[in-house]
């Protein structure tokens, strides 16, 4: 089996390392980079090819890990392929076939409460970050995160928490989303910099430009409330809830369940259409 990874930035390089660990040969597909030595992040690509050269066989994986604004175009290009996996937030497509890679579903803390989902009466998720500091060597103003035409904004970028609500079966009320702050990109286009959501005991609050970064998950159950603070519990990569481990668990589960269509491991692009319908700036 091979995996064609379309997009060779930090996300694509991470997928290549993890899939290679599981014995999958990874081939990078890039529209800009010509040589493997030109890549900026550690990777395990065996080869780098152009999009025009990408011709996967039916048993090969296609992983879309480009910037968000390219997801729709690229997923449409591979729409007939049986094994397409797209980085979050996923394209706005009515496709059950294309799966969206939301790795936080595979944190131990999430998996534990998913098994106890009938006991959940509310969830309160907070994720405040300062995306200006994500890649210190790059000009954040050129990042897709802070540019509307590249698919930026808080709702699309910080969509993991929205997906987690979806994983627990919460039925979203789009009218309950509120844009708290706006950001003007290089073209003076406004995008959402932070948002909140609250409906029937289910809450999300998220920011891309917070001076107080934190990620705190609270689960309210019939027997009590449980709080997981990532800043306290996730300092070490040895933590069962480290982000790095969640990626390994995600790909392990995907590879183990290939071909089992009834096994709803990840959301489909159709499942996630509502993210694109949330009223933005």
Structural description of this entry:
- There is one protein chain.
- The protein has two domains: about 1-100, Rossmann fold, CATH 3.40.50.720; about 105-240 and about 270-275, Dihydrodipicolinate Reductase, domain 2 (2-Layer Sandwich).
- Helices cover about 20% and strands about 30% of the residues.
- It has helices spanning about 10-20, 70-75, 110-115, 155, 160-165, 230-235, 245-255, 275; strands at about 1-5, 25-30, 45-50, 60-65, 85, 100, 120-130, 175-185, 190-200, 200-205, 210-220, 225-230.
Tell me briefly what this model is.
With 281 residues, the chain is an alpha/beta fold.
Which helices and strands appear, and what pairs or packs with what?
Blueprint lengths: L1 E5 L3 H12 L3 E5 L15 E5 L11 E4 L6 H7 L6 E4 L11 E3 L6 H8 L4 E11 L23 H4 L2 H8 L9 E8 L5 E10 L2 E6 L1 E13 L2 E6 H4 L9 H14 L16 H5 L4
Low-confidence spans: none
CATH class of the largest domain: Alpha Beta
How many domains? The number is 2
Rounded to the nearest angstrom, the distance between the terminal CA atoms is: 43 Å
Q: How many DSSP H or I helices?
A: 8
Descriptors for this entry?
281 residues, alpha/beta, 8 helices
